[in-house]
Amino acid sequence: MVDNSMSPHGGLLVERVVRLEGDALNNAMSLPKLELRDQLARECVNLAYGFFSPLEGFMGSEDLDSVAKNMTLASGYVWSIPILLDVSQVTINQLAIAVGDAILLTYQQQPLALMDIQEIYNYDKHFLCQQIYSTNDIAHPGVERTNAYDEYFVAGPITLINVPVINPPFNDYWQTPRQLRDTFAALGWSRIVAHQTRNVPHSGHEWLMKGASLAAEADGILVSAVIGEKKRGDYIDEAIVLTHKKLRDAGFFREDVHHTSTLLWDMRYAGPREAVFHALVRKNMGCTHHMFGRDHAGVGNYYDTYAAHRIFENLPDLGIKSVLTLEWWYCPVCAGVAYEGLCGHEDQKQELSGTYIRSIIQGGTEPAALTLRPEVLEVVRNCAEQYGFGTPFVEDDYLNGRTPVMTMHDVECCCNVCTCPDENL
Questions:
Q1: pLDDT > 90: what percent of the chain?
Q2: Is 201 in contact with 392 (CB distance < 8 Å)?
Q3: What is the number of helices (H) and of strands (E) in the chain?
């Protein structure tokens, strides 16, 4: 039996980052090159820095089959979401790659990582979707993503050889698990509760964090903003990160109890399974608790409102405790933000829904302080002008013209005299 409670997951923080130069760099550049799309590049970075510990690379068939059927790796460690590198038969033939080969993974036509191929295999995607998402409905975004995978998967450990540049404003919030753990130590935090977010915070989010912090008796709150693939209508990434920091800067959280960082991740919307994945990743980042509200990582009506709460009941101790919360709303009788587990005026509640908050932002009117902080709204509007081409919501101009979250050094920068900032290492 393995000990799933160890932190990092598996007991060792995976760190696979090297800088190549001279003959070693020349040898790497001579390898077959496989260009990665955005999602896979982000996952490659996460693997290299240990966000996905104990994984050292993209999954093989034994791990994938165990994750699909048992929600564990073949080793027995709990794991709930596949981390896969898909490739077509055409590409395999073009690159003439086989098990035992080394390849160079590239991104933006620049070197990113080395990979040692341990396996090339295929897997039943219909079965995989049913196991991971509990559906094969093509309207589910995770099912759509999985069905779009090429027919084969390449498995093996990766080593990052060209550290991406994290562009402003995200460079101030990007930290590796090692750096986050060092930050928590410097702050004197031993009990850290994670808040996952893809939204501009309204007062319900604010009180969700405050309530979870009290319930966990936490020393601090880590706001972990998910930065990844965007679709039209989402909040722009810059607004998400900067508004959460504003809550602290404006004094709604003390500086010594609140910290904002980013996680490069493309949501699968796998509901309860993704909740388990989020808990494991935040454990690797140094957190001891993770808050879960209603519909965590869900989409549409595929999962019960509190499915992400119940899934942990049948799992071993994961070394990170779940802080399970009900809904927060505005109650006109209580004259403030109220909690479902306490407020007796449910028939008069005013839900702090995303639709309602968006109507405030789009309407150009000042909200009541008990729904969306004016300080937050000001940052949203500034982000719209500075980053969003006039709107805080993703539209075509943003998708086509934004500054990427990360960009690659030209290979000539991979040397001992590189002047790129150390915080991106």
A1: 80
A2: no
A3: 14, 17
Paired residues of 153 in beta bridges: 86, 121
The 3-state DSSP class for residue 185 equals helix
Residues 6+ apart with CB under 8 A from 22: none
Whose structure tokens read 């005013």? Answer: 350
Would you say the C-alpha torsion 179, 243, 194, 232 has a positive or negative sign?
Answer: negative
Could you give phi then psi for residue 182, rounded to 5 degrees?
-65, -40
Q: Are 208 and 325 within 8 A, CB to CB?
A: yes
The pLDDT score that the predictor gives to residue 358 is 77
Does 356 have pLDDT greater than 60? yes
State the Cα–Cα distance between residues 290 and 279, nearest whole angstrom.
6
Q: Which tokens go with 348? A: 């008069």
Half-sphere exposure of 283 (CA within 13 A, CB side): 26
Which DSSP symbol is given to 357? H
Percentages helix, strand, coil for the chain (3-state, rounded to 5) are 35, 20, 45
Dist CA 16 CA 416 (whole Å) = 18
10 Å CB burial of residue 398 (0-12, 13-18, 19+) is buried
Q: Active-site positions?
A: 198-199
CB 77 within 8 A of CB 2: yes
**Residue 337 confidence (pLDDT) above 50:** yes
Tokens of 19: 């800088």
Q: Which residues contact 305 (CB under 8 A, 6 or more apart)?
A: 294, 295
Helix, coil or strand: residue 262:
strand
Q: Is the pTM of this model over 0.85?
A: yes
Closest C-alpha to 291, from 274, 275, 313:
275
Tokens matching residue 249: 């800067």
Residue pLDDT, tens place only, 227-285 = 999 888 899 999 999 999 999 999 999 999 999 999 999 999 999 999 999 999 999 99
Question: Which pLDDT tens digit goes with each residue over 217-239?
Answer: 999 999 999 999 988 889 999 99
8 in Cβ contact with 177 (< 8 Å): yes
Beta bridge partners of 262: 225
| Residue 341: partners with Cβ closer than 8 Å, 6 or more residues away | 326
Q: How far does CA 251 lie from the centroid of its chain?
A: 26
